[in-house]
Amino acid sequence: MPEEPELETDAPASAFGRDVLAGLAERPRAIPAKYFYDERGSRLFDAITRLDAYYPTRTERQILLDHADEMVEAIGKNAALVEYGSGSSEKTRILLDALHARRTLAAYVPIDISAAFLEQTAVSLREAYPGLPVLPVAADYTRAFDLPELPSETSRVVVFFPGSTVGNFTQPEARDFLRHVAEVAGPDGALLIGVDQWKDEDVLRRAYDDPEGVTAEFNLNVLRRINRELDGDADLDAWAHEVRLDDDPPRVEMHLRSLVDQTLTVLGERFRFEAGESIHTEDSHKFGPDGLASLAEDAGLVRRRRWTDPRGWFAVELYET
Ligand code: AVJ
Questions:
Q1: Residue 174, strand partner residues
Q2: Backbone conformation region of residue 230, classed left if phi is above 0, alpha if psi is from -120 to 50, else beta
Q3: Which parts of the sequence belong to the Histidine-specific methyltransferase SAM-dependent domain (predicted)?
Q4: Is this complex scored with an ipTM above 0.90?
Q5: Predicted TM-score (pTM) of this structure
């Protein structure tokens, strides 16, 4: 999002430090969810997506498989597909397969915060889709970034934002984000976005508190990261993974609950926790059938299409500027 420009001296590690110190001083205490994803965190998230309990990835994947042809049609000829937070671009391959089979994509622009991962992915995509310009951008897509120069035949920019990652934003953040997407996409631009839906509470709870404990490890990983990168002294046995459901707005929250009275030191600053006090680490908003559409409307994005699974657990929606 176009907020304060990063200073040259502002290494990612210090943004992490700044945000953690600020978040622990706040009430309620909170750490932004984007800091889960160091290398281990990304691997844990990958493991989450394969859990029986974690339905979103599998459900979205099936929607893409079932409706790829209609999506390709709706995307149109010679689009540049710009993916926010591409990771290994695994799901995108479903779309890329369908688009590339018709030789109808002008370029694929994966954007990810992890430059090393991105380069690897670009190499394997160029191999899989010969002739497709793959133009990776290493950036934090929640901040301002420049699109690379697109091939001259490009007809429009289509932003792809799968996984219901939009659910990590608060409503005002989501509005700002969607406004920013509309700007990046430009006139005639589009957004293809995955949106997780509110559903049975037991299903939601299990998805975020799986019996294998992988999500608990994922949540606790942010403390490991603090220990390693911010000279922290968190005792991992003194913290517990906690999931709470809330309905205004509908969301799953993750917290780290202190099991004892303790002091957590981060970059030399000391934070006192009483037993039972918690750090809010993630919001995963769940939407009603028109929930995202009304936020998007405020950002000047109009919903054109909506694809869902038979149970209505997840939706993939297409918006236009
Ligand atoms: C990647 C943000 C979509 O909210 O479901 C998975 C992250 N957190 N399990 C989600 C997550 C706990 C995930 N998103």
A1: none
A2: alpha
A3: 17-320
A4: yes
A5: 0.93
